[in-house]
Every structure is written in C-alpha cells, then in structure tokens.
Amino acid sequence: GAGVSQSPRYKVAKRGQDVALRCDPISGHVSLFWYQQALGQGPEFLTYFQNEAQLDKSGLPSDRFFAERPEGSVSTLKIQRTQQEDSAVYLCASALDRGLHYEQYFGPGTRLTVT
Amino acid sequence: DQQVKQNSPSLSVQEGRISILNCDYTNSMFDYFLWYKKYPAEGPTFLISISSIKDKNEDGRFTVFLNKSAKHRSLHIVPSQPGDSAVYFCAARISNFGNEKLTFGTGTRLTIIP
C-alpha cells in the first residue's frame, strides 16, 4: 500500500524566498507530524496535528514557519523568508491515531537547501 | 540540551557477530523508548520499542535492553547481516495523553562487514 509521500523531494531556494512543502499521509491516518533533520543530527519535532487541529506547535523555530492541514489529510509546511539555517531535511510522519501503540510512519523527506 | 544521546557516531561489525548500539537519556519523564532504522534517501522506519515498565523486549534478531537507573538502553542485533547496515536512531517519548512527539538521538551509522 501507499506510504507517506512528500513533495518536492528536493528544493533549492534563494535566501529570502518563501517555500511550501507538501505531505500526503497514509490514508485514514489521524495524526500527522513534521520534523526537521539538520545534517548529522536526528529528527527534531516541529509540530503535530490531530485531524485538522494543530495540537502542538512547540517545536516551530520561529514565526516564519507555518503548518496547516485544513481538511485533516494533506498538510503543508510553509517557511517564509528562508534563511541558510533552514537548510535541512523536512520529514513528515503519520500515525493511525494518537497514543503509544500507534507507530509513526515517516515519509522520505524534502531536502531544502537555502543558498 | 540533548535529551537523548548516542555517543557513537559509527560502528563496524563483522557479519554474523553481535551489534550493540547504545543510547542514553537525561529526561526522567521519558517512559517509552523506540529504535528507528534509516537507509539513505528514505525516512526512518520503526524497529522495536520498550516501555519503562520492562527491562527487555525481543523481536527476532533484535533485542532492546533498558536500564532505568542508569538512564541507558541498548539495541542488540544477533546475528548481524549486511542488510542491517543503516543509521540507527533511538527515540523517546512521554506517554501522557496529548504528548505525542518523539525526541531523537543523533544516530549511529552501523556498517556490517561481509
């Protein structure tokens, strides 16, 4: 079956540009997560949705980062006025529901390079 | 402040031998621990987990041990196979309802030598 898909897979942006990264979760998955993985580091939590509700955005590094999931399925992570420190792989994950026993399935990520 | 630490960036093990990957954590609120495996250009995939009420969990060739007093856990792979070559991330979470995020370590690159 289809897993989590993300697009684009690679994005190069000039400093100051806005970017939008898309995540298509596994069909029927209620929970959706965004993580940021800098080079040589582990994934770091950005934000979490339960259906269309953004329940935790404690990991968003600045107000330039904005995420939405308006219909409770596809999600978009938007970064405004990109900076070089935003260069990273952005991972999306989905889970069937909330709670310990629901595994998070990760997509392949979008590699963002800000020049 | 790194709450989940993997102090070995890389590890090489002969095929057929045991691979031991280590992970420490500092946040005593963590009570559920996971291991993920990552191949290049793919997202991490779940491998095995353990709750803080246990000290060992086995799944085939993979065993995870938890030492709560030392805030340490390890993943054992026996016997190691070439397909096990990947980056392994340990992760942890706090199981209270509403706290869904995972906190990851920096990863250990495991290379299995044929």
How would you describe this structure in keywords?
heterodimer; A: mainly beta; seven-stranded mixed sheet; B: mainly beta; six-stranded mixed sheet; 53% strand
Protein model, in words:
- The complex is a heterodimer of chains A (115) and B (114).
- Chain A has 115 residues and is mostly beta strands.
- Chain A is built from no helices and eleven strands.
- In chain A, the strands form two sheets. In chain A, strands 2, 4, 5, 6, 9, 10 and 11 form a seven-stranded mixed beta sheet that branches. Chain A has a four-stranded antiparallel beta sheet with strand order 1-3-8-7, with no helix packed on it.
- The model of chain A has no long low-confidence stretch (mean pLDDT 95).
- In chain B, 0% of the residues lie in helices and 53% in strands.
- In chain B, strands 2, 4, 5, 9, 10 and 11 form a six-stranded mixed beta sheet that branches. In chain B, strands 1-3-8-7-6 form a five-stranded antiparallel beta sheet, with no helix packed on it.
- At the A-B interface, strand 4, strand 5, strand 9 and strand 10 of A face strand 5, strand 9 and strand 10 of B.
